[in-house]
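Action item from last week, closing it out:
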Amino acid sequence: MLYDASKRLLDILISVVALIVFSPIIAVTAIAIKVNSKGPLLADTPPRIGEGGRSFRMYKFRSMVANAHEILVKDPEYKELLNEYKKGGYKLKDDPRITSVGRFIRKYSFDEIPQFLNVLKGEMSVVGPRAYYPDELRDQQKKYPYTKDAVKVVLSVKPGITGVWQVTGRSQINFDKRIQLDAQYAKRRSIVYDMYIIIKTPIAMFSGKGAM
């Protein structure tokens, strides 16, 4: 398909250019993370679900304390926070696990930059739906059973670093509206539409609007 071939070529070109352009930010961010807190440079998060339901590891700079997900799930002190996390569409407004450096890089989406490596590997695209956690999809479909068809459509394409919901509200959008937006993108995607989203992304990124 011409669109798929064109999109893949665009993904590779944008990723290579982005990694070169963002190299100073990458270097400063990496140093700041290591100085600010103990732990690995990249986040140790559970696998995400990609195209065709295949799982993959999403690369992100660590913005939380080490073993943040394990702490949330297993530490009894975080039981109420875990419930809030699930009820809030797998997002937390005030997450105590986030480091001071992490709060800054999340606000401006610098933590997402390593995902260009996922794009080069063919696991993600520059533009696409959110890459969801397996338990997130399972639990949210129980909460919003009418979203099951939309989920199938979303999983038919590669997830993206950015997408339509990121530039129209980002984390402020609940799962049911977010998955519908992702499904609408999957149905109408085109190079022109992808470029429109890419152009709008820096505005959302540097405004920090809706970031969590």
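Closing note: The chain has a mean pLDDT of 88.
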